[in-house]
Amino acid sequence: MFSRRFDMGVKVGGAIIGAVAAVVFLIVFFGFRNDVADVGYRPEQPVPFSHKLHAGEMQIHCQYCHAGAEVSAHSPVPTSQTCMNCHMAVTPKDEVQEAKIKVLKDAYEANRPIEWVRIHKVPDYAHFNHSRHIRAQIDCQSCHGPIEQMGVVSQYKPLTMGWCLDCHRSPEKFIVGARPISGVFTGKLHDMKNLYDSAYIFTPIPAQVGESLPITEPQFGSYETAIPPVTVAGIPHPKKAGIGPENCSACHY
Amino acid sequence: MNARNIILILIGLAAAGFVALVLSGKIMWFSTEPPVEINPNMDLQFKAIPQSGNTFFSDRKSLREPVEGTVPRGAEPYTLGVGDIDIAETANVDPNLPDTEFVLARGQNRFNTFCSPCHYYDGNSEKSQMTKRRWENIPSLMADQAKGYSNARIFHIISAGQGLMPSYADKMNATDRWAVVRYLRHMQGVTGTASAAPTTQAQ
């Protein structure tokens, strides 16, 4: 009916439109999903601070700098005072290193905070609480990946709602037990010889899941931002904290 | 089936495999640019978030300082200065935490976190990472000098610092610091006096 050339044109045109639509769909559907887009975000920081050096090689525990993760919702990025605890006395080994630390020293002397670029962030309508998870003896690695091997921190896990719920439903698949390097408190006195090993796991996963089992029995409305201080001998005890439901209002309130 | 179809099928399979790998997190690429949000929903609300800038206040800090002359609720500031050792001996009353595994474990956990970079896990500072990295003369906590200190004095050193050693009162609450003292005594293998002040010695 139509000319051969027209037929051909329709076919080629259709193919091109189809291909473009497919590519656009792929980009929009996958490229902008949080689990794909956020993972691997690795901004440049004002000071070339390296976790690989400080946490990996020097074995400074995470909580030395991120102290407060255990008792508050927010895990703070350290103040320059914390850095100066050591850098006041540690002399740089050469000019290159001196230049790297200069920004830090200048900021400290001018009493002005270093503006670290934030990487991990859940949307403001969802509430995440570090202390709740640290006290359940969940290692930082479960959610942040092997930070102690990263020269520059990047986001390692998607932090989407599906990801949170996956772990809440079957923690045994996702939890990494407390390791010495994270400074996560386990309530037990540990053997000296394991303390140097950042791959060593204090809390075996089955025991841990047994302890945080109530997570599968949602308790509605039991959640408060401040963890009720359940203490043993005057010190907060992690295992006795409350229960974590899959209840919407646990995270959206 | 001709060669062209086979190539097309292969390309299709490769594309599908790629998408599957990206989705399952096996392929990850790094970006220094913040992720694009087509629809920001209510992701960024106008509220004070810890450690973030805030345009509402003139100093741009979300974290507000307490009003001058006040103390935040629940805060237990350590008021003595580095030099107040004499006062510290009487002011720091050892709460005598029970000698349980839990207390020692807590002390061990905090000691390893906050003290081990400089004093090493066993208190023998020569082996520590800081000593290895050009910070000499960090005293050993296993030496007689440290063994001879009273509990109150060690608590004071942790809380207020001493010389180049910084204060840890802002990172650990008082109970935790006493637990550290307990654990240190346990490692040193000495009981230690509660305080060197004459009044308590007379009792």
As laid out across the biggest beta sheet of chain A, the strand order is 1-2
- SSE string of chain A: HHHHHHHHHHHEEH
Low-confidence stretches of chain B: none
Report strand % of chain B: under 5%
**Beta-sheet strand percentage of chain A?**
under 5%
How many helix segments of chain B?
9
Give the tally of β-strands of chain B. Answer: 0
Quaternary structure classification: heterodimer
Structural class of the secondary elements of chain B? mainly alpha
**Which spans of chain A of ≥5 residues are poorly predicted at pLDDT below 50?**
212-245
CATH class of the domain at 97-188 in chain B reads: Mainly Alpha
- Report the end-to-end length of chain B measured between terminal Cα atoms: 101 Å
CATH architecture of the domain at 97-188 in chain B: Orthogonal Bundle
Count of helical stretches of chain A:
12
Number of strands of chain A: 2
Q: What number of structural domains do the residues of chain A give?
A: 2
Global outline of chain A:
extended
The CATH superfamily title of the domain at 97-188 in chain B? Cytochrome c-like domain
How would you sum up this structure, described in words?
The complex is a heterodimer of chains A (253) and B (203). With 253 residues, chain A is mainly α. Chain A has two domains: 4-32; 51-77 and 116-250, no CATH class. Chain A has twelve helices and two strands; from the N terminus they run αααααααααααββα. Chain A has a two-stranded antiparallel sheet. In chain A, β1 (231-232) and β2 form a beta hairpin. The longest helix of chain A has 28 residues, at 4-31. Chain B is mainly alpha-helical and 203 residues long. In chain B, α3 crosses α8 (174-188) and α7 packs across α8 (174-188). Chain B has a domain at 97-188: Cytochrome c-like domain (Cytochrome Bc1 Complex, Chain D, domain 2).
